[in-house]
Design a protein that fits this description.
Layout (H helix, E strand, L loop, with lengths): L14 E6 L6 H12 L6 E9 L3 H8 L4 E6 L5 H14 L3 E5 L1 H13 L5 E5 L9 H10 L5 E4 L2 H10 L7 E3 L12 H10 L8 E5 L8 H11 L6 E5 L5 H10 L6 E5 L4 H7 L2 E4 L8 H8 L4 E4 L15 E3 L4 H12 L2 H18 L2 H16 L1
Parallel strand pairs: 1-2, 1-4, 2-3, 4-5, 5-6, 6-7, 8-9, 8-11, 9-10, 11-12, 12-13
Helix pairs in contact: 1-2, 3-4, 7-10, 8-12, 11-13
Length: 380
């Protein structure tokens, strides 16, 4: 802790500064927002947020909550000059803990700490994107990783990757599962209203996927699976999000003649309405940590068809609270989706079990308690 004054004086709470590569819509960015706005104010003082890239969706929401967000407005890779800018911000704020999220933010914070101009404890949350880093990126990581006081992984699979594949010391890597507030299940009226707004017929089944339009998310596999399903069924599919694969996916949809079947509505602020209208949530990722979008769908009682990758089986047991298939296999995904589309009772059973699973093991209080305990440990 920062210190305790004489009897009768206030105790200075530890200050935490969050540094993130971006504040756009995404799983890591949502975790950042949740921590910055929901940490116990009696234990910690949130000193602000620094985003390396231009302000995004969560920067606006943080501002609405009165949390100051600064941006380095990076376009490409950070430079030594950017490290100097971040060092000046940290010197000004003088936080007790800097919590860095995502690869570029982590490396820049490590570089600042190694400069030694101002002392702070460094917590890093690398997320799953480490799995696709180039040789040179991992070499930089190896060179700078001694600066971390603690790493926090979002799943046991990610923790194992960091310790067994990247050589991090096991006692410096902690798992804190993602968690969320358990929402109310949409009422029949809310669902009907959402489906009317989306132009869905009463008997049309909506398959929904959410996430950055990136190769990792496997959306092309989902589109191929929908093409197979269309031979015997009439699914509707929407993939919410934006990213570098947008034009490629649009071309794939056109090539397969799925323009009336598959939608790419971009990033949306009305996600709950889409989830209310949804019948089956699909996670076709090729690799994944522990996706917030999937947990949100499960918490609403939606049946899930997901790929058996990394941290996903930590939340979904095949046949019990969802269906799991091999990654990068459109045929297997189409078969799982067909079984759900054809069996209303199966959808109901898996959806109810999914909601129970999240309520028991992936709650927001549990996640916050895990992070707060981690901060206390490195400050003690």
């Amino acid at each position: 802790m920062r210190g305790v004054g004489p009897v009768g004086m206030a105790i200075l709470m530890p200050k935490i500064l969050f540094v993130s590569t971006s504040t756009t819509l995404g799983g890591a960015e949502k975790t950042l927002y949740t921590l910055a706005t929901r940490l116990d104010a009696k234990q910690f003082q949130v000193a602000g947020v620094v985003s390396l890239k231009s302000p995004g969706h969560y920067a606006q929401r943080l501002a609405q909550k009165g949390i100051k967000t600064r941006s380095l407005d990076l376009v490409g890779w950070p430079s030594l000059r950017d490290a100097g800018t971040l060092a000046r911000i940290i010197q000004e704020i003088r936080p007790d803990v800097v919590h860095a999220l995502m690869y570029q933010a982590i490396q820049l914070c490590r570089l600042v700490k190694r400069r030694g101009e101002v002392p702070f404890k460094l917590v890093s949350s690398p997320r799953v994107n480490y799995r696709t880093r180039s040789f040179w990126s991992l070499l930089v990581d190896r060179w700078l990783k001694a600066a971390d006081d603690l790493l926090i992984a979002e799943s046991e699979a990610s923790r194992e990757f960091l310790t067994h594949r990247l050589g991090y010391a096991a006692d410096r890597v902690k798992t804190v599962h993602n968690g969320l507030e358990i929402p109310e299940v949409p009422s029949a009226a809310e669902r009907k209203r959402a489906r009317l707004q989306l132009g869905l017929e009463e008997d049309e089944l909506l398959l929904l996927s959410m996430g950055r339009l990136d190769a990792q998310k496997g959306h092309g596999v989902l589109i191929d699976a929908v093409a197979e399903l269309r031979r015997a069924r009439k699914p509707r599919c929407a993939i919410i999000g934006d990213g570098p694969m947008r034009d490629h996916l649009r071309a794939q949809i056109a090539r397969l003649g799925l323009q009336r079947t598959v939608q790419l509505p971009g990033e949306r602020g009305d996600v709950r309405a889409w989830l209310a209208a949804c019948d089956i949530f699909v996670l076709p990722s090729l690799w994944e940590g522990l996706p917030n979008a999937m947990l949100e769908a499960m918490a609403l009682g939606l049946p899930v068809a997901a790929t058996r990758v990394d941290g996903v089986p930590e939340a979904v047991t095949d046949g019990q609270d969802g269906l799991l298939v091999a990654p990068d296999d459109p045929g297997a995904l189409a078969k799982a989706l067909a079984s759900l589309m054809d069996d209303l009772e199966l959808r109901r059973r898996l959806g109810q079990a999914a909601r129970t699973r999240v309520a028991e093991s992936f709650t927001l209080p549990a996640m916050l308690a895990g992070y707060e305990a981690a901060y206390r440990d490195i400050l003690s």
